[in-house]
Design a protein that fits this description.
There is one protein chain. It is built from 2 helices and 6 strands. With 95 residues, it is of the alpha+beta class. This is DUF2218 domain-containing protein. Pfam families: DUF2218. InterPro entries: UCP028291.
Length: 95
């Protein structure tokens, strides 16, 4: 699997992460605790780390699914952020 990271500056990253994990918790297996969250998709995993003013998002996906899942995660993050505009730029992580 390939890992893609995005570092999203936002006013309340913990709230954004919590909202998104709860939203997806109705459909997927979700882990959520203080400062961290994760969503298990059928074809991969999305992990979140909340810091002051920053949400780190890591997407572990097979390469053939990455573009679509990056779009899905980005759209959901923006939806959960409401009126706050987010800049989400994905970068591949070399491991």
């Amino acid at each position: 699997m390939t890992v893609y990271d995005a570092y999203v500056n936002c006013a309340n990253p913990a709230r954004l992460m919590t909202r998104l994990c709860r939203h997806w918790g109705h459909k997927f297996t979700v882990e959520l605790d203080e400062g961290r969250g994760a969503v298990e998709f059928p074809n991969g995993r999305c992990e979140f780390v909340s810091e002051v003013g920053l949400l780190q998002v890591s997407l572990r996906m097979p390469e053939d699914n990455q573009a679509r899942m990056q779009q899905v995660v980005a759209e959901h993050l923006q939806r959960m952020a409401g009126d706050e505009p987010l800049v989400i730029e994905w970068r591949v992580r070399l491991e």
